[in-house]
Design goal:
- There is one protein chain.
- The protein contains 9 helices and 5 strands, in the order βαβααααββαααβα.
- With 203 residues, it is an alpha/beta fold.
């Protein structure tokens, strides 16, 4: 049986990695979005997360759960992105569960080429199962414009999240994996051409 590829897909906030994932999916790849897996992992780890950040939420006077008892991710984000220590604490709780969910995805789609769409894939063991990593990039101001238009968030909140990712590429380089930078600063069609050229001799 022909070996199927496992590709890591990453990039900083608002770089266009979800657009790239959609392009790869249209090319026949099975894709998992770690953000969506993260939603499930967050619910699976709900009690631990609430216990870890209850005091911070009370001090900031913001609710962590809605009327149905589900975690309000936007409010949780305000807390965990407020300092590297809080972000690390959050990741220690949920990343193991995210890795498990993505492992399940790989096994369930073993007959297909697969894409792991995950900003912080370098933080979970699965990165070492990837044949290579595609790192989507875009200029800072363009990413800030995209994020503001998409999330309707305050600039200061977006800048905190951007700052948390400032060493993202270096973190991937430190993992000793094959990594290819792909710039996404023009149209979706232009990005598709770049991905086609990259994958031409690999698929």
């Amino acid at each position: 049986m022909e070996k199927k590829l496992i590709i890591g897909l990453c990039g900083p906030m608002a770089s266009g990695k979800n657009l790239a994932a959609g392009i790869l999916q249209n090319m026949g790849f099975a894709c998992i979005d770690a953000d969506l897996a993260g939603h499930q992992a967050l619910e699976n780890c709900r009690d631990l997360v609430l216990q870890a950040f209850k005091q911070d939420a009370e001090q900031a006077n913001i609710p962590l759960v809605d009327g149905d008892g589900k975690i309000i991710r936007k409010n949780l984000g305000k807390i965990v992105f407020s300092s590297p220590e809080k972000l690390k604490k959050h990741e220690e709780i949920v990343h193991g569960e995210i890795n498990r969910l993505m492992e399940d995805f790989l096994q369930q789609n073993s007959s297909k080429n697969r894409v792991l769409n995950a900003t912080v894939l370098y933080k979970v063991p699965l990165i070492h199962k990837c044949d290579f990593v595609i790192f989507i990039t875009a200029p800072f101001l363009l990413r800030l414009y995209r994020a503001r238009r998409r999330d309707k968030a305050k600039i200061k909140d977006l800048l905190k999240r951007f700052y948390a990712q400032k060493d993202l590429y270096a973190q991937y380089r430190s993992q000793n994996v094959d990594i290819y930078k792909v710039s996404n600063c023009l149209s979706a069609g232009h990005l598709q051409k770049k991905l086609n050229a990259l994958l031409k001799n690999k698929v």
